[in-house]
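Researcher: Quick test of sequence recovery. Tokens follow.
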């Protein structure tokens, strides 16, 4: 009899355990469905507003030339500004630029003060649950810069036995030290406190190459007989960002980026603003 009572009690416990498991599964399913519907139900909201009001609101920190800044006439200019204007033209709407400090860009997006962030924005893996990113439109990674007439330098492996200039403490400094260690290269590193000091090493002949980010490289190459050894050494993409429920809007952005790559528009922007 005791055994029967024990089996009955154990059966009751199992029944309750299964009920709890089923309840937890239902809760997870309901939450997942709610979250999915919340995103999909509002995913056209930004795109719909843009179409209805005829205005694309773009958030950017206009203090980072050549990507975005405000000129002496008080107008927004730069690489990202041209991107935004071309997006608006493509969609038949007017661009409206909202100047926001870089640290407040995501807050402005979340508060729906802007529709898109276009501001030399790095892809942030930690934000992928909160925003939707576009495809990359510019790679700001580390590059190898040499004298234009130096045809012997084709890759970082050619730095073996050479001298390379980097900015003291910059990402390039850390990267080349790690490269030399991991690949067993004999590389002499000379450092400067500012990019202009580093590029002076190259022009003076005290360095065979310079490693820096691509934006810095273009800034100091203008008017100088220097060239970038392709491809970039690291990947640091600039992307556009929208709210997590703006997937249709971002799909339209990616379609535009794809079309612009085909016709060379992005290459033209790079030539105009960076080279």
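Model:
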């Amino acid at each position: 009899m005791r055994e029967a009572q024990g089996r009955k009690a154990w059966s009751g416990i199992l029944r309750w355990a299964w009920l709890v498991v089923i309840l937890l599964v239902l809760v997870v399913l309901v939450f997942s469905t709610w979250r999915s519907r919340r995103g999909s139900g509002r995913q056209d909201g930004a795109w719909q507003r843009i179409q209805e009001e005829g205005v694309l609101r773009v958030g950017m920190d206009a203090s980072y030339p050549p990507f975005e800044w405000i000129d002496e006439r008080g107008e927004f200019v730069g690489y990202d500004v041209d991107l935004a204007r071309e997006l608006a033209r493509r969609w038949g709407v007017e661009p409206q630029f909202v100047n926001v400090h870089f640290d407040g860009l995501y807050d402005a997006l979340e508060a729906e003060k802007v529709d898109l962030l276009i501001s030399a924005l790095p892809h942030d893996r930690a934000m992928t649950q909160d925003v939707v990113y576009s495809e990359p439109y510019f790679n700001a990674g580390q590059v190898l810069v040499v004298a234009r007439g130096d045809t012997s330098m084709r890759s970082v492996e050619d730095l073996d036995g050479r001298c390379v200039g980097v900015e003291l403490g910059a990402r390039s400094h850390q990267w080349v030290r790690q490269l030399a260690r991991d690949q067993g290269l004999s590389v002499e590193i000379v450092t400067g406190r500012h990019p202009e000091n580093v590029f002076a090493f190259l022009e003076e002949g005290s360095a065979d190459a310079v490693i820096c980010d691509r934006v810095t490289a273009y800034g100091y190459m203008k008017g100088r007989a220097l060239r970038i050894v392709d491809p970039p050494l690291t990947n640091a993409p600039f992307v556009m960002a929208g709210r997590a429920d703006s997937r249709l809007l971002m799909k339209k952005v990616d379609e535009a980026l794809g079309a612009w790559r085909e016709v060379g528009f992005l290459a033209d922007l790079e030539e105009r603003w960076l080279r």
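The two ends are 91 Å apart (CA to CA).
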